[in-house]
Design brief:
Elements lengths: L1 H10 L12 H9 L6 H6 L7 H14 L4
Helix pairs in contact: 2-4
């Protein structure tokens, strides 16, 4: 899992405020398509399995954090 986190942070890291977040739109798409969180993580952590309203709320939050609509 540490490898997955490092790989994801190399593409999109909200802790680095001065770094462009070009991958944020892709993250929104992955969330809405049900590909995030990854299956292997969701299986291990039942609370990570999102329903439609949670997926939409997360996508909206990602958009807002990235300065989107």
């Amino acid at each position: 899992m540490a490898h997955d986190v490092e790989e994801a942070r190399s593409k999109l890291n909200f802790s680095e405020w001065n770094r462009p977040r070009q991958e944020a739109d892709e993250a929104v798409e992955l969330v809405l398509e049900g590909e995030m969180p990854p299956l292997q993580y969701a299986i291990m952590h039942k609370a990570a399995q999102l329903d439609d309203s949670e997926r939409q709320a997360l996508a909206d939050g990602l958009r807002a954090t990235n300065g989107g609509e």
